[in-house]
Specification:
Helix content: under 10%
Largest sheet: 6 strands, mixed
Radius of gyration: 13 Å
Shape: globular
Structural class: mainly beta
Length: 114
């Protein structure tokens, strides 16, 4: 059974930084393309960043230059480094494969506010 467990969210001031983590189990992590997604109140879940098994990254225009996705295959973990955060980054953040084949985890709440 696939499990995706996100952590690292919290309250952060505009301009601050956070590092999200997602531990995956039940999949052959190293061969999967992984993604971070987010869902703000009243909005549909949206793709934020992807990282292929070969190390290629892609980012939503809204986070380019501010967010960095990375992975540690030995730890079966994918990360999202969030810098220069803005209030519009407030959302619940989720990880999944890309495309998102598996059931969603509980997500981690990120709130950007002064």
């Amino acid at each position: 059974q696939v499990q995706l467990v996100e952590s690292g969210g919290g309250l952060v001031q505009p301009g601050g930084s956070l590092r999200l983590s997602c531990a995956a189990s039940g999949i052959i992590f190293s061969i999967n393309n992984m993604g971070w997604y987010r869902q703000a109140p009243g909005n549909q879940r949206a793709l934020v960043a992807t990282l292929s098994s070969f190390g290629r990254t892609n980012y939503a225009d809204s986070v380019k230059g501010r967010f960095t996705i990375s992975r540690d295959n030995a730890k079966h973990t994918v990360y999202l480094q969030m810098n220069s955060v803005k209030p519009e980054d407030t959302a619940v953040y989720y990880c999944n494969t890309h495309p998102a084949y598996h059931s969603w985890g509980q997500g981690t709440q990120v709130t950007v506010s002064s």
